[in-house]
Structure formats: structure tokens, C-alpha cells
């Protein structure tokens, strides 16, 4: 913390421009290190093309190395027109460096591929995670984007159609489009669910099956808002499943920070807070020179060095890589941006506390990071904790905290047990999430039929204690206790996808099980809460090899939604689905009630599909 010690305390915690004078400026242009390709407009030189092709060939399939390896890559495109062919593999982002998406145009190259994610092995896109396209225009007749969770299209313009999966029997479990304009038609293909926000587009062509298609603050190509598809004053008739919801624009929102280049210098653009805005925002915001942005590299950066920069008011861009951190990243400075590129991944090598700790400060933005649980021998309490436990810090609607494109995971690459009590715990008010995937892994490097040895010890994916916390596009899966617990008033979730865990763990090791009864897919202890477009599932046999793994078992079965007060469900929740994928399973291995009320001790809604 030596920067802070050099400065008067008032300056060190404030948002002062005087600070920049006393700091050594960061290099501009920065050195992003070996995992970033910086491409100029035009056609790629053959050697770059070959290297990109090689990354694709090595990292495209479902093998351990591809899916759970340590490779991380970002391709940054200078503004202008590019002829480019990239089929995006695992842990790979293509990002335009213009001031807005229109400034960087991608057209197909010699192979006529352009940018895409196409058909996967076994015709299944359900493992197609961890890749993104951001801040550019695709001048293509059609873009194939056959993905599942953790794979957003963000701030893009697509001139033609967008196809989101191959034909059946392809299976896909996406996905996210945010702050974009899709000028052609959208084909949902086999997508079980999809979250879209603040995008100009044609309507979803049909409704989802068991899952939900949700559009938040979307508009037509001509800029007309899509009307809200439900009425908050109506009763629970609207909590039954439609699979297709349009919702009002967020009352308070700001888009994800991004990088642009002008005159050979790099800048961080921090979009402004807007109110009830429909459609994309590619204009608002403030600009920070990279003189005040530290570019961390996994081969050199330490948690201590990163924390010193943050304490001095310097923003941090994490170059693609895996960062093993020996202490928490602490954000106690207002307005700080932490921006990961190419699925930059942070892993704790310490016990207790949280991997990332945000203090009682406004306007902090976390974007594009993957937070990964460490060994259970050193378990953390949370991977991200926003506000100290017991904090009553209310936050500010004029300057909320934001979390964008966050992946938190436990298990996958690991060969020994991993854990964290919570993936994310939010104690402060006015924190807003956009596209989060909180994943206790259901398949791992040592996987066989969803065994996922070793064990993952995650109690709860998300716990919210602050007021006015809002989640847009939340996926949370396979935790050992309640998947989401929401205690703060005036919260909301627009789009939720959740799956209970499949098994207790190894049949031969009951001592390692987490025995609970009636765990919830989504528990609301607050009274005032809004929820739209939910799909909560129990997936049991035959995914788990029951000769080795003990199927999930809970006395009384699992509960889809649990509310304290019946009115919270009746008036606050719209388009909710709960489904048992195999209804032949015994009651203790599936969802027994769609919506349960704690105060009345009754099942309010039995409609489990
Ligand atoms: C775009 O989608 C429309 C409607 O599905 C279809 O008629 C048209 O052929 C598609 N265009 C291309 C280039 O795929
Ligand atoms: C969980 O329950 C099983 C019986 O169903 C028991 O054998 C086991 O010891 C329990 N595990 C723990 C950690 O309590
Ligand atoms: C559903 O569960 C029953 C009972 O265990 C089993 O026999 C059947 O194979 C399962 N079906 C599917 C499609 O998983
Ligand atoms: C590119 C394309 O095919 N666009 C069409 C999408 O669908 C609408 C009707 O819903 C047509 O008017 C567009 O031409």
C-alpha cells in the first residue's frame, strides 16, 4: 500500500484528480503480453492467420485441455475494416477498439468464415462456454453463434441474421446479447433459454420450451420499445410459464466499460448511468487515459501490486491468463474499474475472506472476470464479496456498483476438492449484475457421466443482503444448499436459469456429502421482490452414473421457489417454470413444489413440469 502511505488520507480515498499528478503514469500504449493479438485493419498476414488457426484447432473440442486448460486469448481489433476468419474456441474474445461498435467492421476473410461459433462435437452446443465478441460490427449475411453460458455477444451490430444453434438434435443452453443491434432475423434454434438486454432487434421468433426467453429494455429496429408482457398488479396467473417475456428497461443502468484507441493512445471508456433507457447506449460516458490504467499480466502481477494500483485510484485491466493470488483483491476506492480480457481468471491460494472484496464505495465496476474456487483445504468464504458482512451501506442509485460478464466456478480443471461458501455475496445496496454464470461444475477434468470427482463444496451461488440489488441475466447451478438466497428488500432478477446438483457425491464416501432437506432453487426472505423469466430444473438420471455416484436425495424433495410471504410470489413473480427432467424419480430426488411459502408452511403452486 505504499502509494496510499505517501498521500494524505483524504486524497488516498477520494476521487481526486490531484492524485494523477503524484503518480507515475502507466505506459501508453500498454504491453498486453503474449496472450493478446493486436490486429490492424485489412487482411491478416499469413503468419497471424496460422497462429489463430492453431489456437482454434487446439482449443475447440471438449477435451480436458480445451475446456479446462489455462490458455486465454483476446484478439483486439484496431478501428477500421477487417477481413477475418475466426471460429472462436474456448477462452477467447474478439474485441473492437473503436469508440463504438460501428468503428470496427469485420467482414469474412479468404475462408469466408468471418466471426462465428459453429457446430460443436456431437452436435451439442451445451458445453460451448467462455468466448465473446464485443464492440464491433459484423458485416455478414448471417452470424452463427451456437453457444451456452458464459458466451455473450455484447455491444455488437450484426448486419444480417443471427442463428443461435444448429438444428436438432443439437442442444444448447445459452446465452446473452447485450447493448446490441441485430438487423436481420434471429433464429433461436434449440436454445433452452436466452437473455437479451437493451438491444434493437426483431422479436424472438417463438417462445422457449422449458426455459425462458427474456428481453429487457429491448426495442424494434426502428427504435420502438417492446411493450412489457405482464402486469405487476395482476395475480399469480402470470407466474405460470409462458417462456417469452419482454420487460421494461432497467430503471438504472450503465453499460460495461471498454477500451478504445485513438491516435496510438489507449483509453478506458466508462459508460454513464442512464435511467429507463430502451435499446443500446454507445454514446454516454467518461474517458480515462491508459496513463491511469494498469495492465496486469498473469506472468508478473501480484495481488499486492494490483491492490496498490487500486488504492491509488488506478483502474486495472487483466490481460488474458490465470492469476494465482496469495491475498484478496481489495477495492476500497470509488469508481474503480476492474476489466478482464479473454476470460482472465483469478484463483485464490489463501484461506478465508473473499477473493475479490469491494468496500463501502460507489461506482465500482467489475467486468469480464472468471473467479475460480481454490482447494477446500484453503476455502474462501466468497469469491466476490461486495460490502463487508453485516454492512448496511445503502449505495447510490446515481452511481451503483456493476458486475458484468462474471463467471464464478468451482471445479472443472481441479484434481482435488475445491470450495467456497458463496460464489457471490452482496451486502451493500445498489449493486447491479449483468450476465453472471455461477457454476459449481457438473462435469470436470476427471469426469465420467457427471461424476465430477473431486467434490465441489459450494453452499450457495448468490446471497444478497443489500437493498436495491438487481440481477439481469443470472445463471446459477449445482450448489449444495439453496442456490440463491435473497434477503435484501427491493431486489429483482430478470432472467434466471438454475439447476440443482445431480448427486450427493461419491456413493462410497457418505461422509463427504452435504445432507440438507428442501433446498431452494431461489429463496426470497424479503417481501418486496420482482422476478421474471425463470427456469429452475432438477436433472437426475441417467446423467449420473448411479453405480458410483449417489443421486441427489433430500427429505421432502427440492423446492423451486421459496418465499417468506405468499404475496411476494403472487404479485412479484412472472413467467416462472420449474421442471423435473425425469418425473419417474422418487420424490426425494426431484422438485416437489414450484413455490413454497415459509410463513404459511404450504406449497403455493404445485405446477412442476
Ligand atoms: C435470414 O432469415 C430469414 C428469415 O428466417 C430468411 O428468410 C433469410 O433467408 C435469411 N437470410 C440469410 C442470408 O440467411
Ligand atoms: C449424510 O447422510 C448419510 C445417510 O443418508 C450418512 O451416512 C452420512 O454420514 C451423512 N453425511 C454427513 C456428512 O453427515
Ligand atoms: C427416469 O428414471 C427412471 C427411474 O430411475 C429410469 O428407469 C429411466 O431410465 C429414467 N429416464 C430417463 C429418460 O432418464
Ligand atoms: C434479413 C431479414 O430476413 N429480415 C427480415 C426479418 O423478418 C422480418 C419480418 O418479421 C422481415 O420484414 C425482414 O425483412
From TrEMBL:
<feature type="signal peptide">
    <location>
        <begin position="1"/>
        <end position="18"/>
    </location>
</feature>
<protein>
    <submittedName>
        <fullName>Uncharacterized protein</fullName>
    </submittedName>
</protein>
<dbReference type="InterPro" id="IPR012334">
    <property type="entry name" value="Pectin_lyas_fold"/>
</dbReference>
<dbReference type="InterPro" id="IPR059186">
    <property type="entry name" value="SACTE_4363"/>
</dbReference>
<keyword id="KW-0732">Signal</keyword>
